[in-house]
Write a structure and sequence with these properties.
Order of helices and strands: HHEHEHEHEHEEEEEEEH
Distance between the termini: 42 Å
Shape: globular
Radius of gyration: 19 Å
Number of helices: 7
Oligomer: single chain
CATH class: Alpha Beta
Structural class: alpha/beta
CATH superfamily: Class I glutamine amidotransferase (GATase) domain
Number of domains: 1
Helix content: 25-40%
Strand content: 25-35%
CATH architecture: 3-Layer(aba) Sandwich
Strand order of the largest sheet: 2-1-3-4-11-10-9-6-7
Largest sheet: 9 strands, mixed
Length: about 240
């Protein structure tokens, strides 16, 4: 009986199920929200919401606006990097190289809202993030349509999703991105993309992964269950 007891304990310890909790707990997420342009007032709410996600998923979430975390190349041990409404030129030459090296090593990056209003003079970043911010109308309710692509970040969403946010018009959209949500420009005022208006997408890029959502400007977004589920699943989709 004693041998049987130890054998069962050994099998339980070595089973995949036994390791799943440990593996989940080992995930380390960097939330980077430095700004050199417009600063979104919702950033602290976004950080708090992602930290709460971390608690629920047993992730270690590190939030910073210290650019030296990139310049000193301290990012290689993170399982994902979230660029939370970063604006302007936040990366120096060393930081740019560090982010590229991270992606080339299979790293995953999540861009939230103003991450496209960032690094306009860095073509690689534009291609990787998938588009550049161009303009936006007043905040208002619009309808988002799911595309036919299957992805964890949209699995919980209705086919036609009506919500209020600040809706970006984009320029220099990378045609290689896989669009997950389209804005219905007939449902609001100020859309300038001639009916083809991506607002969330993903792509595999030079060895790494990118998930971007244009949602998340408003304070209310960070208390909205569907948006938070959308973002959480997007983060999980890029974890290495």
């Amino acid at each position: 009986m004693r041998l049987l007891f130890f054998a069962c304990c050994f099998l339980a310890f070595c089973s995949p199920a036994a390791h799943s909790s440990k593996d989940t707990a080992s995930k380390k997420i960097l939330v980077f929200s430095a700004t050199r342009g417009f600063r979104h007032e919702s950033i602290p709410l976004g950080v708090a919401a992602i930290q709460k996600m971390g608690e629920a998923n047993h992730w270690q979430v590190v939030a910073t606006e210290d650019t030296t975390v990139f310049s000193d190349n301290k990012i290689s041990d993170y399982n994902a990097i979230i660029l939370l409404s970063t604006t302007g030129n936040v990366f120096d030459a060393l930081g740019q190289q560090a982010l590229q090296d991270y992606v080339h090593a299979g790293g995953g990056v999540v861009g939230v809202h103003a991450a496209t209003d960032c690094e306009y003079e860095w073509p690689w970043y534009n291609q990787f993030m998938g588009a550049q911010f161009d303009s936006h109308p007043a905040q208002q309710t619009a309808v988002l349509h799911k595309t036919g692509l299957k992805h964890p970040s949209t699995a919980m969403l209705p086919g036609n999703w009506s919500r209020k946010d600040e809706w970006y018009n984009f320029k220099n959209v990378n045609p290689q991105v896989k669009v997950l949500l389209q804005l219905d420009e007939s449902s609001y005022q100020g859309g300038k993309m001639n009916g083809h208006h991506p607002i969330a997408w993903y792509q595999d890029f030079e060895g790494g992964k990118l998930f971007y959502t244009g949602l998340g400007h408003t304070d209310e977004s960070w208390h909205e269950p569907l948006f938070l589920q959308h973002l959480e699943a997007g983060i999980k989709s890029v974890l290495k």
